[in-house]
Amino acid sequence: MKANNKFLRVILSSVLSGFTMWVVGGLYHNLIIPAVNKNMHPHHEGLGITLLAYILLGTLMSYFYQNAKEDKDSLLKGIKIGMIIGVLWVFPHGLTMAAVHESSIWYQITNTIYHTVEQGVGGIIIFITCRYIVKKKI
Questions:
Q1: Separation CA 20–CA 18 (nearest Å)
Q2: What is the pTM of this model?
Q3: Considering just the CA atoms, what is the radius of gyration of the chain in Å?
């Protein structure tokens, strides 16, 4: 694969997966959770920084996707990388917050499960983007 093609794959898949995860996260945390849990309220502070953080997360996921041992693009590869990153991103920090602030460990576990789904969706977008670039020979 040409170097500029690989660079394009990483850049496009980073932005598209980051944006998608940001939207999924916003829907979950600002619409779904407040609808089912009266103690949770929607929040819209820091949306720009949050988008930037998700694009950074998408960049890390795209990098791992491009450099995985499994050279072939596959949907399963994208989902696996997303789910692993979801756990690595939130669970250690969540456990620390549970210990330091005496919050619920159960919440941290369920939040981690949610993030495996959210980042799994990001992994799907990375696969779709990379597959599209290869098929179109961009």
A1: 5
A2: 0.90
A3: 16
